[in-house]
User: What shape does this take?
Amino acid sequence: MKFIHAADIHLDSSLHGLERYEGAPVEEIRSATRRAFDNLIELAIDEKVAFVLLVGDLYDGDWKDYNTGLYFVERMGRLREAGVRVFIVAGNHDAANQITKHLRLPDNVTLFSTKHPEQVILDDLNVALYGQGFATRVVTDDLSQVYPHGDPQLLNIGLLHTCLDGKPGHEPYAPCTIDELLSKGYQYWALGHVHKREEVSQDPWVVFPGNIQGRHIREVGPKGCALVTVESAEIVEVEHRDLDVMRWALCELDVSASETVDDIYEQVREGLQLALGAAEGRPAAVRLVLQGHCSAHSALHADRERWIQEYRALATGLGGAGIWLEKVSIKTKPSVSADEVLERDDALSGLLRAIRDMELDASALDQLADEVSALRQKLPAELLSGDDPYDPTNPEVLKDILEDIKELLVNRLLSTEKGS
Assistant: This one.
């Protein structure tokens, strides 16, 4: 017997950070979570699994209309035709969805109670399933404490949407301890909520399968589900299966050894090719980070926007399944240390100190904001709104611009120092 354990589907959630870039396949991006879920359906049918466990955050908050729900019902119908049962616990994002509460699901789908742990016994498989979903978006109680103990005559599987003992980047919902889970006598704990795959324990199995499709740069690498094989009421194999249709990657390059901007360009080419290869035929969304002390630091920063566009064009021209730069971050430093120069007592060190000490007080910021207000009126509306708006009259933006100017001046001076 086999079953699939998946979680954090986030149907119709848009991928963040790509759509605003020229050349990105917008429709492919928007449909990524559906296509990954289609891969899950095909895997369940191909592997002839007995059932599928969906452990929370099937949806991504409230829907704009019924299309997301109708799509899901149709896919559940496909599994019904294949004789595959589906068991679901609601997660924090599902609890925020109002339409879900009125959606009639096919009879092969069981949605566990949100009021208390519920037991479902599959007599034909000698399996007992236990689960409780989220009644509200925020659940801070340890739900596992009231789960019943397992039946020693059955294969016992617990479904729980939880942060466990706390995971970075995830809300502390339904916290519990590994000792509490192990005390229940289950052979398998199917967990959800944490988007990174982790086998917390193998005896018994306690597994986060991760989400099925990465949605932003913090969700890099392969994404999918756990395919579990059972023999004689024992778990004999837990295998990760990829389901994602796009892959996110962080390409961090130490360019310290590169002497020129052309050397860096070739290093970027090699890094992007590696990222594309790691995507295994899928489109790749990559964040490029250049770092290290290098001779070309000043040249990079002096023409920063040009090089960002050069790298984007390079990525676009690599071909294959496609690769897009989600962001380019240039964090290089000059090969000549500013701290070393600042320790000296000469004209250059004095000038550097003056630049480093430049600040804008509140009145200066207000005056500068007034002067650039006319510029703001000429900017396109899409630049002034959205997830990452740009407002040149914002005091914080002006401070960031000053820091960039200071950095540019320091780099130019250090470059002059090296060349002298």
